[in-house]
Amino acid sequence: MIVLEKIKEAAISVIPVMLLVFLLHLAAAPLGDTVWKFLVGGVLLILGLGVFLLGAEIGVLPVGQKAGSALTSRRSLSILLASGFAIGFFITVAEPDVHVLAEQVAAVAPAISRPLLVGMIALGVGIFVAIALGRIVLQISLKVMLAVFYLLVFVCAALTDPAFLGVAFDAGGATTGPMTVPFIMALGVGVAAVRGNQGKDDSFGLVGLASIGPVLAVLVLGIFFRGNTGSAEEANAVQNLGLWQHFVSLLPAVAGEVGMALGPLAGMFVFFRIALLRLTAYQTRRMLMGLVYTYLGLVCFFLGVQGGFIPAGREMGALLAQHDFRYLIIVAGVALGALAVCAEPAVWVLNAQVEEISGGHIRKSIMLASLSLGVAVAVGIAMLRVVSGLSIWWFLIPGYVLSLGLTRFCPRMFTAIAFDSGGVASGPMASTFILALTLGASHSLGGNPITDAFGVIAMIAMTPLITIQVLGILFERREKAALRQRRQRAAKDPTTPDTGDTSA
Predict the structure, then answer these.
(1) CA of 171: how far to CAs of 105, 421, 482, in Å?
(2) Binning pLDDT at 50, 70 and 90, where does residue 285 land?
(3) Which DSSP state fits 409?
(4) How far is residue 87 CA from its own chain's centroid?
(5) What are the tens digits of pLDDT across the range 196-212?
(6) Which residue spans within 47-116 are E strands per DSSP?
(7) Burial letters for 425-448: b for 16+ Cβ neighbours within 10 Å, e otherwise?
(8) Percentage, residues of the chain above pLDDT 90
(9) Which ranges of 305-411 would DSSP assign to H, the alpha helix?
(10) How confident is the model at residue 236 (pLDDT cuts 50, 70, 90)?
(11) Contact 208, 419 (CB under 8 A)
């Protein structure tokens, strides 16, 4: 069955992270009874991701591709932009990573309203999905748009409340999770497909541009915010519940939240079915089945996150940050970062689409290795910030200057892939366990979590911009060298076939 295949994919991704955490529990940071919550939470996470990915494949992706093609074929830019905004907004409201981030922000800074934060993030994504679709249709240079908008981001970052800085850049990574990435990428592929071969390179870059929107939106919120953003002590009250009762007690609230998040998305799909798409009865049934699977998968996912991963992450972070293990948390962060990127379902979606659209020239294994290296460095830097108290400015400014500078030398398609990769690398593992780990460590060290811990998702989203573009530059050089060799062989022996094989 397909569902078993999806659960197997999720298990292969998540189990290495669980094993590493369990080894740390045995060797350096004993979690006590929390380890059982973590293990049960991991099983629920695997089940939830597997069912969710099935729902995305049969219900979300086909609608995204058909909607993109149908909207573009209408030849109305205003309809395309308005639809892009609505799609970006509602798909973000349904994004699990956004709610996890907002929940963790509200836990340490209660003055920052969770609904307001989710609303601003969704607004930013909606605006920039519309901008990204307009770029494809009007054929505006992605490199120019990235430079202009990131300049605007850093101007706003210099003016905003410091408490919003890390949260804003984290929001850019959290929005590009397992719900948003498949749908937005499918939408972009559908729009670009109308242009034929000329639009192939434009299939990428949509996620990269869309992830700028929430950063700008939260930074603007910080500029005008007048509340108290000081860190708050988290409640330490622990309910005396058994293991299973612990998860069952979370079920009603989780089921209600997921239903409220998916409700507008389901309504949008029904509207598309009536007004835009010509779906057969079979395709309509698959769309509805996909939404049901998506709902069930997200409920399991959130139960695992809230019931096991977040509590275990915070407790382990607090234990590792003790004086005896202060620098061990950096080593643990590097290992977790390298493994966590493999657990991001959106990474597998992106890598598969990259290999397909590049005709197999850019292999999934090369992409995955490059992303793992970048994310490992990113999480290590984030843990160093927690231990040392270094400002995130010391890393964001050089990182983005280098990223934007590399666009000058990198092939256009690799630049688009790199900025998409930055978003997809920062998914469920980053916004749940790794962020919880940094929050726990910051509390244990007596720091201010709102400024010291938040920013870890931002670091994860930034480093692939560098590693993938470097990969693109190396790939282009290899391709040119191979082309020169073929020409030299052809000059010596005209019967030599020109295969054009430059697979990475």
Answers:
(1) 11, 15, 41
(2) confident
(3) T
(4) 17
(5) 555 455 556 787 888 89
(6) none
(7) bbbbbbbbbbbbbbbbbbbbbebb
(8) 12
(9) 310-320, 328-340, 345-357, 364-388, 393-406
(10) very low
(11) yes
Q: Distance between CA atoms of 171 and 218, rounded to whole angstroms?
A: 8
Using N-to-C axis directions, what is the helix angle for 96-108 and 114-138, rounded to 10°?
140
- The first and second tokens of residue 109, run together, are 């800074």
CA-only gyration radius of the chain, Å:
22
Which residues does 242 contact at the CB level (< 8 Å), separation at least 6? Answer: none
Query: What pLDDT sits at residue 188?
Result: 72
Looking at every residue in the chain, the average pLDDT score rounds to 81
Three-state DSSP class for 302? Answer: helix
| DSSP state letters, 361-389 | SS-HHHHHHHHHHHHHHHHHHHHHHHHH-
- Closest C-alpha among 67, 175, 105 to residue 428: 175
What is the residue-wise DSSP string for 164-180?
HHHHHHHHHHHTSSTTH
Backbone angles phi, psi at 240, to 5 degrees: -85, 75
Amino acid at 384: L
Answer whether 190's CB lies under 8 Å from 73's CB. no
Question: Residue 74: what are its φ and ψ, rounded to 5°?
Answer: -70, -15
Query: Residue 157: is its pLDDT beyond 90?
Result: yes
Which of 94, 197, 107, 173 has the alpha carbon at shortest distance from 396?
173
Task: Give the global pTM.
Answer: 0.79
233 alpha-carbon distance from chain centroid: 28
Per the structure block, which two tokens stand in for 363? 């292999």
Q: Report the pLDDT value the prediction gives residue 305, as an integer from 0 to 100.
A: 83
Give pLDDT tens digits for 25-73: 888 888 888 899 999 999 998 898 888 878 877 877 777 767 777 777 7
Provide, rounded to the nearest whole percent, the portion of the chain with pLDDT above 70. Answer: 85
The residue extents of the domains of the chain are 14-230+243-485
What are the DSSP calls for 230-242, one per residue?
---PPP-------
Our measurement of the distance from residue 307's CA atom to the centroid of its chain's CA atoms, rounded to an integer in Å, reads: 21
**Residues 63 and 182: beta-carbon distance below 8 Å:** no
Give the up-direction half-sphere exposure of residue 232: CA atoms within 13 A in the CB hemisphere. 14
CB-based burial label for 314 (10 Å; 0-12, 13-18, 19+): buried
Q: Is a pLDDT exceeding 50 seen at residue 467?
A: yes
**Burial status of residue 37 (CB atoms within 10 A of its CB: 0-12, 13-18, 19 or more):** buried
Place of tokens 């726990």: 440
Distance CA 239, CA 246 (A): 8
